[in-house]
């Protein structure tokens, strides 16, 4: 019966390479001199439609033999012989893997050794043009902030403030300073997003115009966008540079714009006065 076949025995046989059906069939076979296929299926609780394939596989592996007659019967190979055959198959597989590994070492080593003499002098610079790649990279950088993030927020927006939930969470726990263009507050949804950031803890200033999109992270990494000055396309080339000297230099430019910017209250008052 099925409950006579221990699950531990099935597990041990599967570790040696048998399927669970094969393991159950073999454990059923060793309990009697021989069985018909139907008897094995019943003893091992295996599907009748699968039993001939399972027994055929055991015979092919040398773990069972057939006994011809009016009804073909199956007998188990002695456990010591059967286990030796399973282990021998693993040894052969391991030997094949070792041979293939040695061959790969010989094949790959020249390319590896040649590659060690070639380094990219600009490996700290990353250029992105695909919008999806830009969004994913910005999300990665935003998630990597340890202390401080400074932002020139300028259209086109990859993720506007009202949609940047991760940025709002970051503002609650890290130093976050953003400079916006004054005209952005004319969009009601955008203005609501800015207020959400301010409520979360962001500091903000507003200026008439910003020269480019810019992100500075921990005075180490900068991400900025540049338009083609000739074609004048709205598409941006985004550059990510991991270079503390550049980050510190651009932070000075950020602080210069910050010093001339309006607070949120002053910016809203200026807009009201402009409309009036």
Task: Please give a handful of descriptors for the protein shown.
7-stranded mixed sheet; 3-stranded antiparallel sheet; 2 domains; Arc Repressor Mutant, subunit A; 276 residues; alpha+beta; Endonuclease, Chain A; 18% strand
Explain what the structure shows.
With 276 residues, the protein is α+β, with helices and mostly antiparallel strands. It is 50% helix and 18% strand. The chain contains ten helices and ten strands. The mean pLDDT is 89.
Question: What are the SSEs and their pairings?
Answer:
Layout: H1 7-15, H2 20-29, E1 35-36, H3 37-44, H4 51-61, E2 64-67, E3 73-76, H5 79-115, E4 125-128, H6 131-143, E5 148-153, H7 165-173, E6 175-181, H8 188-200, E7 203-207, E8 213-217, E9 221-227, E10 236-242, H9 244-260, H10 264-275
Largest sheet: 7 strands, mixed
Spell out the helices and strands N to C.
HHEHHEEHEHEHEHEEEEHH
The name of the CATH topology of the largest domain is Endonuclease, Chain A
**Fraction of residues in helices?**
40-55%
Question: Structural class from helices and strands?
Answer: alpha+beta
The CATH homologous superfamily name of the largest domain equals Endonuclease Chain A
Domains (count): 2
How many strand units?
A: 10
Number of helices: 10
- The CATH class of the largest domain, by name, is Alpha Beta
Query: Distance N terminus to C terminus?
Result: 91 Å
| Annotated CATH architecture of the largest domain | 2-Layer Sandwich
